[in-house]
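Now produce a polypeptide, keeping tokens residue-aligned:
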Amino acid sequence: MVEPKKFSGIGLKLIFIAIVFVVLLIGLFCMNSKLSDRKYTYNDAVDEISESAGNSFSLEGPYIVIPVIHTWYTEHLVQEKTVREKNQQKEYVTVYAEKTDFTADIKTQMRTLGIYSSPVYTGTLDVCATFVIPYETDDEYEYLFDQAQLILDTRQRNLCSHPVFNINGTETVSDATYNCSGTPSYSVIGSTCAVTSGKNIFTTHIDFKGARSFWIHPVSKDTKLTVTSDWASPGFTGYDYLPDTREISGDGFTAQWNIPFADKSAQIGFRLVQPVDLYKQLDRAFNYGFLFIIVPFIVMFLFEIFADIVLHPVHYLLCGASSVIFFLLLLALSEHLPFASSYLLACSASAILTSTYLASVTGKIKIGASMAILFSVLYAYLYLSLKSEDYAFLIGTLFAFCVLATVMFLTRKVDWSSLHKRNV
């Protein structure tokens, strides 16, 4: 084996190693940009899947809009005579329910676009509401109870059929609600129905579809929402109220909210959280990439000091490149295989390549075996950090401290000023 050219001083050697380290960091940065590109492609695919399913299902209501004829009289002088003139104006009053019970049953399924997949859902929603209308017709206000509009504020693209409204035992089929200009609104559905002054009972059954999330505005004075779903990873945070009770298992979840007052600006519901956020894990893995360059470099340099070998900066470059390629392998494999399998394949390939290469270059199998053990520890540490998000910072700090302490302990008796005499 041809002996590599020896450098005359440790300072020059460290400068070359530092240059190699910077070059590899630039390569790692470029790979991180590739991760961002893949993440954007994934998000675009999820957006397209969700958009085709109607995106999030949301509902506000029910409420009743009652036309009212307001009549009043004005007096004015006409040729010194007092003339009494009748005036009329059509107005509207809105009545929200005293109590509303929502019961939702939601089934999910995975939809695929290319190599990407995202959950969508279909479901049923049963609504039962009690209205108390406090108005009665008198000489000034004539309430047109037979022309009342019962309205649910929800997007029609989320509906699988026309809901049938039942008000006081009379059924009507809902449709797009028209505004004052006669233009139909596709963000609300409603039906003309007859109501009475006092208590009114409303029920309906809604077949709907959606993606991402499900939520309701608690606009009634007393709102109860019960949701049953087969999705095992619901996200309840990010909404104004957490469920009062919830049961989550591998087969799905059941949750119940009780809101004893109206809060028109609030939302209650849940999100379809992906059990494993692949690109979030990959992004965190790339954040630790510099350790997979600097730690092997430190160990290789220690080998030069204690194992009586000489390594060229090219050896550092190639071994560091093998560590950087690990992250690219992990990204490519994890888009097609489960993350754990992808991680095992990528780290095995990188560790075997580097360890075999160093054993061959130095002619010492023990050095290759030592590097294999080192990479096993590194990759085990990284996997533990990825799975322990809440403790990742603590784990990383302790690991860095242990590496520094080990290097300081091993080199405590090294005479750095005379290392050039040992052909480092």
Confidence is low (pLDDT under 50) at residues 1-8. The chain is about 35% helix and 35% strand. The helical segments are 10-52, 278-287, 291-306, 313-334, 339-362, 365-387, 392-410. Residues 112 and 118 are 7 Å apart (CA to CA).
